[in-house]
Amino acid sequence: MSDEEFSLRNTSGEVTSASPLDNVKQEIEKYKATHKKLLAEQRDLSKAKDDLMDITKKFQMRSVTLRNSLKEEEKEQAQGLEKEKDKLSALQKEESVLKAEIQKTEEELGHFDRINHQLKQQTQVSTAVPEKMVVFTGDVDVGMGARAGAGAGASSFGLDARIMYPMEGGTALITFEDEEVAQNIVSLKKHEIQLGECTITLEAKPVQFLMPSHIEMDTDVCPRRILISNLPKKFEESRLLDRLEIHFQKKRNRGGEVDSIDLLHDSGNVVITFVDDDVAKGLTDMEYHDVDLGKKKYRLRVTPFVNGKVTDLKTRISVSRRTVLLTGIPNIMEPENMQDSLEIHFQKGGNGGGEVDAFIYNPVGHNVVAVFEEDSPKKE
């Protein structure tokens, strides 16, 4: 082999020969391929760099926007806080003024209560009888001379009517704002009502009650009982009675041995019966008592307990002028849907109806007791 030639082995192990020029060409091609690959990688890196720069720029702009937004929110919160502080300060001032007015009013009321108490004691009748909504109207004569033991002549008092009305199944009661609408519905008697693809026929009737037109009572103040009112609401019954019994048994509170204590659920007042006769009068003379009921003290009112016996009673038929009884309602759909459908029907003027104040539907097989109270005069 000459100096200008050299031997190479190929992949199969055979010896081949190549000239220096061929070798250089191969090296050049190799470097070209490497250079091309590097250029491609450089372009990819440049593109990636540009993308990163773009993302970074967007992120920076977003950060600036967020910082500005946070600054605005902090500014608004600070302004809102200042406004709330100003409102709180104004409310505190208003509360202070109201407290002063309330205290002044309470003092004036206390003065009138004392005068009223003295007048009540003269007739031996207490107007603090439990505030029941009862089923009668008209005047009632009480404290009638020797029969009441007062010797101060006759007086009268009134109570608001409250009637418990048991409803039959398949009926409804509807109260209209306008009396004329109710009377029109009653005068029409039969009413056809479309319920989807079904039509039902109802009958409208007046609601009638047997009510007292005149009542006379003999009354006397019970010497061993007191009536406690102005009690706190939503107080556990057993705990309330225990605390009251403890307070009114103590001599230093003008109390005495308690025979029984009962809560009147309809009025929320409490009746205490003492063993001795002289305890009740001493407590009612004082009238207002500060009683510790556990968490704090409450200012309770103590008044005489009045026994009464009806001596004369006259009654009359009374008709509710704004309430109508609907009968003959079949049980063909859910109660809520039936009530809504009936109420919508009787609200429409085209059906002879009008604005509804109250509505109650009692499905077949259910027991419902509706409460009728004294009708308030319509405001013009």
From TrEMBL:
Keyword Cytoplasm: yes
Pfam families in the record: NID (PF07292)
InterPro entries assigned: Nmi/IFP35_dom (IPR009909), Nucleotide-bd_a/b_plait_sf (IPR012677), RRM_dom (IPR000504)
Subcellular location: Cytoplasm; Nucleus; Secreted
A single MF term (Gene Ontology): RNA binding
Residue ranges, compositional bias (Polar residues): 8-20
Example GO BP: innate immune response
Record keywords: Cytoplasm, Immunity, Innate immunity, Nucleus, RNA-binding, Secreted
Domain RRM, residue spans: 224-305
Region (Disordered): 1-22
Entry superkingdom: Eukaryota
GO cellular component: a single term: nucleus
PROSITE patterns: RRM (PS50102)
Location (main, coarse): cytoplasm
Family the entry assigns: Belongs to the NMI family.
Full protein name: RRM domain-containing protein
Organism: Albula goreensis
Phylogenetic classification of the source organism: Eukaryota, Metazoa, Chordata, Craniata, Vertebrata
